């Protein structure tokens, strides 16, 4: 159950409960000592799958400065966060917040600005990206998260029922095991807690799906990552396998076409965005 202050975490190597994510705790199971480096906690297991190591490598080559990434590339993301997720954070009622696969982690910083009393953790699989950009974004926006941590969405290094609000944006589609990630997210939700995930649904008409499979496939093969197209039906299947009702998946309205059924029709040839909502 969520109380105030830092979330309780578990050792990513031996899964033993360690305690609150603060000071320099040591794992009572394997003795691993945790301390932030460059403002970022490493909560990844020592043995990490190649796909996940490659996610970190994929960030290496792009030389764009932080402010350009944030203000030029993330406009829509910031709007989703602002309009869909942040209103969920309630003054005095939201004690802990988690951003997953945050990249620049503007959502974590904006959440901290919206709910300064809450303890906010901004996480991503890439410790390098967090150190180089996310920590900086926190200062640019003037409200850094309380903790920046490298963490795997498929094996969240937190104890059960820790967070009142969890957010991710275009992350689940690139995970090798999305079902596992959704179950993990549900596990760390505190009673009354809510998760919002914004994801992309690829076009469902075969020639257009085929094109995405080829393009994304080439990209993920070159980078060694798990990125792949998932259609609306694919998302429904993933949710069903994870044990969540079909109502957990909703079509995101577009700027011009707001009706969900028309959006689904247009989704034959164009990608749309969908929202995954989980609650405990
Ligand atoms: C398309 S980016 C989206 C970043 C951010 N959410 C945004 O909207 O700006 C996908 C992010 O997922 C992260 N990611 C990939 N695999 C992950 C995993 N297993 N666990 C956590 N994050 C992961 C990547 O490092 C990357 O930052
Ligand atoms: Zn341990």
Secondary structure layout:
Elements: E1 8-10, E2 17-20, E3 40-42, H1 50-58, H2 66-73, H3 75-85, E4 96-100, H4 106-114, E5 119-124, H5 127-140, E6 147-150, E7 163-169, H6 178-188, E8 189-201, H7 206-223, H8 232-242, E9 249-251, H9 260-266, E10 272-279
Parallel strand pairs: 3-6, 4-5, 4-7, 5-6, 7-8
Antiparallel strand pairs: 1-2, 8-10, 9-10
Helix pairs in contact: 6-8
Bound molecules: S-adenosylmethionine and zinc ion.
What characteristic shape results from the CA principal axes? globular
Rg estimate, integer Å: 18 Å
Structural class: alpha/beta
What are the secondary-structure elements, in order, as H or E? EEEHHHEHEHEEHEHHEHE
Portion of residues in helices? 25-40%
Would you report the number of β strands?
A: 10
* The CATH architecture of the domain at 8-198: 3-Layer(aba) Sandwich
Strand content: 15-25%
Q: Record the strand order, biggest sheet.
A: 3-6-5-4-7-8-10-9
Distance between the termini: 11 Å
What is the CATH level 1 assignment of the domain at 8-198? Alpha Beta
Total helical elements? 9
Identify low-pLDDT runs.
Answer: none
What's a quick, concise take on this entry?
This protein is α/β, with parallel strands linked by helices and 280 residues long.
Can you describe this structure?
- By secondary structure, the chain is an alpha/beta fold.
- The chain has 9 helices and 10 strands.
- The chain has helices spanning 50-58, 66-73, 75-85, 106-114, 127-140, 178-188, 206-223, 232-242, 260-266, and strands at residues 8-10, 17-20, 40-42, 96-100, 119-124, 147-150, 163-169, 189-201, 249-251, 272-279.
- It has an 8-stranded mixed sheet, sandwiched between helices. Strands 1-2 form a two-stranded antiparallel sheet.
- Helix 6 (178-188) packs across helix 8 (232-242).
- The protein is globular, with a radius of gyration of 18 Å.
- It starts with 7 loop residues before the first strand and ends with a strand.
- The model has no long low-confidence stretch (mean pLDDT 93).
- The structure holds S-adenosylmethionine and zinc ion (ZN).
- The site of zinc ion (ZN) has 8 residues, from loops.
């Amino acid at each position: 159950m969520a109380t105030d202050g830092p979330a309780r975490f578990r050792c990513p190597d031996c899964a033993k409960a360690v305690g609150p994510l603060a000071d320099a705790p040591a794992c009572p199971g394997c003795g691993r000592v945790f301390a932030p480096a460059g403002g970022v906690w490493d909560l990844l297991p020592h043995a990490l799958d190649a796909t996940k190591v490659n996610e970190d490598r994929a960030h290496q080559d792009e030389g764009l400065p932080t402010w350009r990434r944030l203000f030029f590339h993330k406009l829509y993301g910031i709007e989703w966060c602002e309009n869909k997720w942040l209103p969920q954070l309630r003054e005095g009622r939201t004690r802990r917040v988690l951003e997953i696969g945050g990249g620049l982690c503007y959502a974590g910083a904006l959440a901290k600005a919206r709910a300064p009393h809450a303890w906010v953790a901004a996480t991503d699989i890439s410790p390098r990206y967090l150190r180089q950009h996310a920590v900086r974004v926190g200062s640019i926006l003037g409200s850094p998260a309380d903790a920046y941590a490298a963490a795997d969405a498929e094996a969240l290094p937190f104890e059960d029922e820790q967070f009142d609000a969890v957010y991710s944006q275009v992350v689940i589609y690139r995970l090798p095991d999305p079902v596992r990630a959704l179950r993990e997210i549900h596990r760390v939700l505190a009673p009354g807690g809510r998760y919002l995930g914004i994801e992309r649904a690829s076009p469902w008409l075969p020639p257009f799906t085929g094109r995405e499979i080829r393009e994304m496939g080439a990209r993920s093969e070159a980078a060694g990552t798990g990125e792949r197209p998932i259609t609306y039906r694919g998302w429904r299947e993933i949710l069903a396998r994870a044990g969540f009702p079909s109502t957990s998946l909703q079509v995101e309205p577009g700027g011009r076409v707001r009706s969900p059924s028309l959006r689904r029709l247009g989704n034959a040839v164009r990608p749309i965005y969908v929202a995954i909502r989980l609650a405990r």
